[in-house]
Amino acid sequence: MFSKTCEYAIRALIYVTRNSPNGEKVKIKDVAEGLNSPQSFTAKILQDLRKLNFVQSVKGLNGGFYMTEKELNYTLDDIVRAVDGDRLLDQCTLGLPECGGDYPCPIHHEMKPIKDRLKKTLKEYKLSRFLEDKSLDTTFLRQ
Questions:
Q1: Residue 67, number of CB atoms within 10 A of its CB
Q2: Mean pLDDT in residue range 129-142
Q3: d(C-alpha 20, C-alpha 142), whole Å
Q4: CB within 8 A of 138, min separation 6: which ones?
Q5: Where are the domains of the chain?
Q6: DSSP 49-82
């Protein structure tokens, strides 16, 4: 559904969120291992997320990535839109420019409730939820 970059961006942010309580730094190597992702790919994604202000970083021997209260308030919707844009969530599933309630594509009425539910879910999930919700301790991020 999301691009591979977006999937890994979300997973990386969840990993950093869950592994940097109180501003502790998480190394790229640890994130890559935690996600079972190539280190260079993970590094690029985290650097891009840093530029987009979704995560903080400190360079150097004791450096790494971490979250502050500001970053913990971002939602999955914010991340998806920043990484993949709004095509999946707001545009026609078939890519038709005129699609809408008044001029629907053949699957518009079937896809609209699915997209509405997806948008609602993505907006409900703040990164802080992955830190606070202890029931998520049994979930995993690796493939």
A1: 27
A2: 69
A3: 18
A4: none
A5: 4-128
A6: HHHTTSSEEE-STT-EEE--HHHHT-BHHHHHHH
What is the Cα–Cα distance from 56 to 51, expressed in whole angstroms? 9
Its CATH class, for the domain covering 4-128, is mainly alpha
Helices (H) and strands (E) in the chain, counts: 8, 2
Nearest to 65 by CA among 133, 13, 112, 7: 13
Contact between residue 115 and residue 9 where contact means Cβ atoms under 8 Å apart: no
Alpha carbon of residue 89 to chain centroid: 14
Sort 109 into a burial class: Cβ within 10 Å, 0-12 / 13-18 / 19+. Answer: exposed
Contact 79, 9 (CB under 8 A): yes
What is the value of pTM for the model shown? 0.87
Q: How far apart are CA 116 and CA 120, in angstroms?
A: 6
**26 DSSP assignment:** B
**pLDDT tens, residue by residue, 55-88:** 999 998 889 999 999 999 999 999 999 999 988 8
Question: CA angle at residue 119 from 116 to 121, to 5 degrees?
Answer: 110
Retrieve residue 60's tokens: 């150097």
